Amino acid sequence: MFAKEIRFFASLAKGEVSALVLRPENATHLFVLGHGASTNMRHATMQSIAEALAERGIATFRYNFPYSEKGGGRDSQAVCVETIRNACRAANQAAPDLPLLAGGHSFGGRMTSTAQSEAPLDGVVGLVFFSYPLHLPGRPDTKRAEHLAEIDVPMLFLSGTRDELATLDLLTPTIKSLGNMATLHLIETANHSYKVLKKSRTSDEDVFGEMARVAGNWAESL
Description:
Elements: E1 2-11, E2 15-23, E3 29-34, H1 44-55, E4 58-63, H2 66-70, H3 77-94, E5 100-105, H4 107-118, E6 124-130, E7 155-160, H5 168-176, E8 182-187, H6 207-220
Helix pairs in contact: 1-6, 3-4
């Protein structure tokens, strides 16, 4: 297993940020992985995702948005999109032999889909979304999904059945409307942070292991 921390240029306005590369010996893809709105690349959820993917042969390039590294309020959408584009370029340089996947957990996934809808991300063959935030808690809506129809690479959505930011009555038809470009895998009893109801969950598979298995099988089909 190869692990290294690097820095890359995020945006003209914000300068450099950090990234963590985790590459197993049998890596087939490199996943450019963005973090949630109030976390960073070292958050426990990000660590769990990266380690589970490594077990499945998918390397990860975790990175910080400028605000999560330097402090202050959340960056503008333009800065976040620029950061994602530059993260993909840096990931290509870090592992030029691997095809890229991109996406992230919650906010990181939504900003990645926004970037891809505006213009293709360098080297990216598919997008993977962990808990895609379709709407705010208690405010069901699908406006955040309107740009998904502009994306021209396959998408995988990994969403809990109790996700308070993506109720199934809205998420399921939204994904279906995207046709063959989108795949939805539901994580039984999981919420937005992948906490599960152990007493009522029928599967004993680890949540992160399940998502890595599904993502790995999906990536192999691209």
